[in-house]
Amino acid sequence: MAVNLAVNDDDMTIAAPVQLRARAIRKQKIVKAVILTLTLLFLFMPLLSMLLFTVRQPLSGRWSLNAWQAIFTGNGDSLGTDLSILWQGLGYSLALSAVTAVAMLLLMLPAMVIVHIRSRKLERAMEWVATLPLTIPAIVLVVGLGPIYRWLSADVLSTNPIWLCFAYVILVMPYAFRALAVGLNSIDVVTLSEAARSLGASWPKVFVRVIIPNLWQAVFSASFISIAVVLGEYTVASLLGRMNLQVALYQLGQSNSQISTAMSLLAMAFGVLLLLAIDAIAGAVNKHKERD
Amino acid sequence: MTVNFPQGKPAAATAGSSRISPFASHRNELGAFAATLPFFAYTACFLLIPTLIVVVGAFKAADGGLTLANFARLAERNTLVSLGTSVAVSLVSALIGAIVGALAAYALVIGSRPNSIMRRIITAISSTLAQFGGVMLAFAFIATLGINGVGTMLIKQLMGLTVDPNWLSSLPGLIMIYCYFQIPLMVIIFLPAVDSIRPQWREAAENLGGSAWQYWTRVAGPILEPRFISALLLLFANAFSAYATAAALFSQRSILIPLMIQGAIRNEMDANQQGFSQVLAFAMIVVMALVMLASHAVEKRSGRWL
User: So which residues are the signal peptide here (chain B) (predicted)?
Assistant: First the structure.
């Protein structure tokens, strides 16, 4: 569940005396190739199967692009399926991911910056609390959130799925915290803020004009990982009886598994894009640092 | 000087004077605490209170008093079997995932440059697949080894064997599916550990006349061992808390603890089920806490090496 935000920091090169170790290295190469091939095969088989499954009618064996057509035209009539539940779920999930990312940033970023400057002790406390959701499984959290959500939806808010954002902010916290902490540790926040303060900037100004611009990569990473987590969330939504993308995929899967498999692939591709973007951002930062 | 924090919470602090007097530093702490109040208040509402509801609910009788009666249900055969299955599935998938993932991580690092394309591709794939759980993962394996799965057909045509369509919902099937996210997770968390192994160590061992076996048991093994164990524990925790994949695969059978919790939540109106979901959730918290404690102890030990 972790995202590799770490940076290749090693300047390790292989400098073995070639003549001496030629045989060992050749053997090593074979073992290496076998391990990597087998692992990749295991990881790619299901993905490939998914793709084949979406274009081949399992019962008749006929090849067709109907499932993809249905998704991209938004009309499942040709397959006798009502896709409205899918669009509804997708809409809620997209809205949830945006709201969750913004709420997470508002809640964590200012606090993390100030704690980073002022108090090592509080920073540790924050880290401990923010990574706690990794220890408390989502299914356990749901048991405790049930009564809270019953009260919220009956007396305060509504049963609208968008209010799942309260639970989702907790779920994304560990990942977002790590992403933001990496960013904070990579710049000298104390010097930056002291310089800005001594030049007469107010604290909000320091925050908005000096610190955020220096942290934008971390902010993007934290937001992207939050979006990826929210788009893949099923446990909380399904057990609290709210609709989101994964719940819709599951329900649609009962009637037309081809379309929901195709949609799963799309959702996954989007997740890959988000994570590649995080990787690219980290890479760009690294290059920038090397040049300096 | 009065300082306004972005949340609009006024707090008195003198900027940049933390090294001047203990009094100022105390005020700094107070200011920092004020800034983190929204964060701690929020986590109290949506993390601490739910956890407390679980813990208190586990000890609460139907009439509102304190009781241990709920725990009697933990000792029921059904529950014990599910708990055992949960632990077994998590343990086996963690072991397989850790071993295969560590081998893959080693294969990625050894003999190649740190920025090789292969490594970048596999890291990117792994970070995606490690999160690839739940409904979509269930679909992937139904498409592979379900009744009409691509793999099922392939095996039938190539080897004439029929794959039991129920194999996916058997324990070995579930373990294999769990491995699908365990192996990539292991690759990601173990890569930094393998990176820390210097090729010079091996050369040194060889120059001193050590064999490959000696190198692995005396040098690389002891260095990697604590990290491997703490990764293994993390994988166990990951599988133990997984719910969505199993829920999408088994619609009716509650063979794992998370699935029993699902059943208990759905039957909450039933008076006999009162407090059952909380007790099960409490049991999960206890297992997770034990795993985290073990992991903490191992990490402390590994700290000596790094």
Answer: none
> What long-range pairs does A284-287 form, CB within 8 A, spacing at least 24?
A284/A217, A285/A7, A285/A186, A285/A217, A286/A7, A286/A8
CA distance B188 to chain A (A): 6
- Residue A11 belongs to some domain of the structure: no
Instruction: Report helix, strand or coil for B175.
Output: helix
Q: Between chains, do B29 and A42 touch, taking CB under 8 Å as contact?
A: no
Q: Give the end of a domain, one of A73, A97, A117.
A: A73
Q: Which residues does residue B66 pair with via DSSP β-bridges, in sequence order?
A: B60
Closest-CA residue of B relative to A22 is B111
**Gap from B187 CA to chain A (nearest CA, Å):** 10
For chain B, the structural domain boundaries read 2-58, 69-302
Among chain B residues, the shortest Cα distance to A146 is held by B50
Number of structural domains in chain A: 2
8 Å CB contact of B35 and A170: no
Q: What is the pLDDT along chain A (292 residues), one digit of tens a residue?
A: 444 444 444 444 444 455 556 777 777 788 888 988 898 888 888 888 888 888 887 667 777 777 787 777 777 666 667 778 888 888 999 999 999 999 999 999 988 988 888 878 888 888 999 988 888 989 999 988 888 888 888 777 877 888 889 999 999 999 999 889 988 888 888 888 888 888 888 888 888 888 888 888 889 889 988 988 898 889 899 888 889 888 988 888 888 788 888 888 888 888 888 877 877 777 777 666 665 5
Distance from CA of A235 to the nearest CA of B (A): 6
Q: Does domain B69-302 have CATH number 1.10.3720.10?
A: yes
Give the residue numbers spanning the domain of A240. 79-291
Which of A35, A126, A239 minimises the CB distance to B104? A35
Nearest chain A residue to B283 by CA distance is: A140
Count of CB contacts below 8 A, A vs B? 292
Residue A77 C-alpha, separation from nearest chain B C-alpha, in angstroms: 22
Whole-model pTM? 0.81
**DSSP, residue by residue, chain A:** -----------------HHHHHHHHHHHHHHHHHHHHHHHHHHHHHHHHHHHHHHB-TTT--B--HHHHHHHHT--GGGT---HHHHHHHHHHHHHHHHHHHHHHHHHHHHHHHHHHH-HHHHHHHHHHHHGGGTS-HHHHHHHHHHHHHHIIIIIS-S-GGGGHHHHHHHHHHHHHHHHHHHHHHS-HHHHHHHHHHTT--HHHIIIIIIHHHHHHHHHHHHHHHHHHHHT--HHHHHTT---HHHHHHHHHHH-HHHHHHHHHHHHHHHHHHHHHHHHHHHHHHHHHHH-
Q: Do B50 and A207 touch (CB under 8 A)?
A: no
Determine which of A21, A36, A41, A114 to mutate to test the interface with B (most B C-beta atoms within 10 Å).
Answer: A114
Preferred mutation among A25, A39, A156, A184 to probe B, highest tally of B CBs within 10 A: A39
Locate all alpha helices (DSSP H) within B44-167, ordered by sequence: 49-58, 69-72, 77-109, 117-129, 134-145, 150-159
ipTM: 0.79
